[in-house]
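This week, study the protein below.
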Amino acid sequence: MPVLKTLLFTFGTILFISATAQQPTIKILESGKRVSIRGLSVVDDNVIWASGSAGSVARSTNGGNTFTWMKVPGYEKMDFRDIEAFDSGTAIIMGITAPAVILKTKDGGQTWKTVFEDTIKGAFLDAMDFGPKDERFGQVIGDPVFNHQLYTLLTTDKGETWKLYDGSDKPYEHRTLNEGEAFFASSGSNIVVGLKYSHGAMFVSGGKRSRLFWGHNYDSIPIMQGKESTGANSIAVYKNSKGVIVGGDFAKDTISTNNCVLFDINFPTKFTIPKTPPHGYRSCVIYLNKKNLLTCGTSGVDISKDGGKNWELITKDGFHVCQKAKKGKAVFLAGGGGRIAKLVYP
């Protein structure tokens, strides 16, 4: 029996070491700047763009070994909460308010062209996304300006021009947000476009009510809600088949209940609650592949290896946003203090 116990102990130890050895880690690439980064776009394993407060944009063309930082002239006080990059030279940044503005560069950030501006009081842009297969099509969502109506911008020419869509062709009831309901500008990832179903887009709201919108429909999300700091922050969809939504309460970011739901894109009203949820408020979530997911927030980073059913905390270091390369395998994160990091496997 002692021999058997020893063998079992040894076998268990080997399994533990093996599992631990495969756990990814977070490698800090850039930090120390007084910038909060919430916009992140990874073109491939080499080209990374990031945007944030104080009119700041960062770009790397060598996989994050070095970054070039720039201030956008005339917008030195703007908070660029989202960015969409198409290649090493072309990118679009979204300034949230006063004025709400969208700028585009075609020369690596040396010059920027204003492609949209709204100076109306209360205009506030929250997030944008472009189709993964057809980058001509993009959409921006913003907080309601008139009568609690959803604020939506559309482009069909890769962000060269934008049109404010007011839903005037049909009085869609779902376009009316509730008092205290809006969209978070936390990571630029609470909207997904280019979907085969759902009229091409899905997006999630938060605050006193949290809902999933798709096509001309919506449904309440079984996620923490009821206060201005609660609700859904991010949505990710895997190959038009399944999705995940994360959020919580950013004012109490260590609460790990009611902060994540899974759903089938064919039946978006049927939600599943993870057995082991992420360990706190999470502002962004992405699929690494069919089974592996990554989510981050101010209280840490979690990974799931079973499609989102169970989550493991890999660091308590906080990040606002995470993104995988559109054409590659590299995964990067960004957050406060100008921090940009890479997910590294042993």
User: Anything to note?
Assistant: The CA atoms of residues 191 and 245 lie 11 Å apart.
